[in-house]
Design brief:
28% strand, 402 residues, alpha+beta
Length: 402
């Protein structure tokens, strides 16, 4: 859809929507960006505003606006996450190929934390938008149309191991939820090709998390290359598509798989696997029963103090969050998120801008079968500045808490 296609009622809703969200710091401020949210919610003003505001809060908490500058992708994802830009379709949609079936998801998720996996995909999406914004003539069918992407999911190599490894399934569900909540109308079409029968198991698990609009954009094909190549070529000029998918593009050496654009995935060497053995000599134990959570309180007496954490679990993940008490209310400081602290220690720090009580929460309510044991160290460093040579400031007086 583009702005010229709006009827008078829709134009009125768009004007009202702009006024309603004028206080939001938007990644893009034009009417086309706002139109995406209205289309996603069928021009329901209240639902569109709620969706947009929730997404802006998500972007703030996870620092999505600066991800292209600040996020450093782990090497294992750079080398073994098999996706890449290959061209545009006939409607100028930015096109990405994902060789999902060729990826060793278990190896990747034993070598990088789930959060890094998710952030890597978010970075890819954000880089897509950045590229489109900087070259709208190439990636938009008209100046006032919504920029969209076409994705080819190649499932060759997909097997039961992609379904039975729970962390891989969890990340797939989370990615669907991230897309649905934060990137409305990004997709024009999805081609799933070389799908074996077992793919239906994965798809049935993902469908409940998809909006009906998303489901209608997905076309699934089995290993009949003649059939799916014919379908894809209805949307693509051959020079915009790798030869292995029916197009004319090849690598400089003639490789039809275009591995300089989209790597082939493959088995992750065990040398990348994270070492799950952690030092517990300076940490305290804490058991969290199945279906429950534990909260630790820390008194911050000086604004600007630094609260640092370092924890790991004996096995399995745990949800973690930090809040600041404000009367009877808990203000979120570190967003609630499940972390793979059984694979490697979870470390971080925050500046405490306010004095008062800060609450560190370890949450196991999502697990009703397994209790978790964690080992943790939490420190508070005073913000009292000490001058060194007249200009450098250091934090002193580290204090071990609990």
């Amino acid at each position: 859809m583009n702005l010229d296609q709006l009827n008078n009622d829709q134009k009125t809703v768009l004007k009202q929507f702009r006024e309603a969200v004028k206080d939001c710091k938007l990644p893009e401020s034009d009417d086309v960006y706002l139109l995406r949210w209205l289309v996603a919610r069928d021009f329901d003003l209240a639902k569109s505003e709620k969706m947009l505001r929730n997404s802006m809060e998500w972007r703030r908490k996870y620092k999505v606006d600066t991800i292209l500058q600040d996020y450093k992708t782990p090497e294992v994802l750079t080398k073994y996450f098999a996706s890449g830009y290959t061209g545009v379709d006939k409607l100028n949609s930015y096109t990405v190929v994902v060789r999902y079936g060729m990826m060793d998801l278990k190896g990747i998720l034993l070598s990088a934390k789930k959060r890094d996996y998710l952030m890597h995909v978010i970075e890819i999406v954000e880089r897509t938008f950045f590229t489109v914004r900087n070259n709208p003539k190439k990636f938009k069918k008209s100046p006032d149309s919504i920029a969209q992407s076409t994705v080819i999911f190649d499932m060759a190599g997909f097997s039961m191991r992609h379904v039975t490894f729970k962390p891989a399934l969890d990340t797939a569900i989370q990615l669907v939820q991230l897309y649905e909540g934060n990137y409305p109308e990004l997709l024009r079409r999805v081609y799933v090709i070389n799908a074996p029968k077992i793919f239906s198991v994965l798809f049935s698990m993902l469908k409940p998390f998809m909006h009906e609009k998303t489901k209608n954009k997905i076309q699934i094909y089995s290993h009949d290359a003649k059939q799916w190549k014919a379908a894809i070529l209805e949307d693509f000029d051959p020079e915009e598509l790798p030869a292995c998918y029916g197009g004319a593009k090849t690598d400089p050496d003639g490789n039809p798989n275009c591995i300089t654009m989209v790597n082939m995935g493959g088995e992750v060497p065990r040398s990348y696997y994270l070492n799950g053995k952690c030092n517990i000599s300076d940490k305290k134990p804490l058991s969290i029963c199945s279906g429950s959570k534990e909260k630790l309180e820390f008194e911050i007496t000086q604004a600007g103090s630094v609260l640092k954490w370092d924890f790991h679990s004996d096995e399995s993940d745990i949800a973690f969050a930090i809040y600041r008490k404000q009367g009877s209310e808990l203000i979120s400081i570190v967003p609630h998120d499940r972390v793979d602290c059984h694979m490697s220690p979870e470390e971080g720090e925050i500046f405490c801008d306010y004095v008062g009580v800060y609450v560190v929460e370890f949450d196991n309510t999502f697990s009703y079968l397994r209790s978790k044991k964690i080992w943790y160290s939490i420190t508070i460093e005073s913000s009292k500045p000490v001058c060194q040579n007249g200009n450098n400031l250091d934090y002193l007086d580290a204090e071990i808490c609990n």
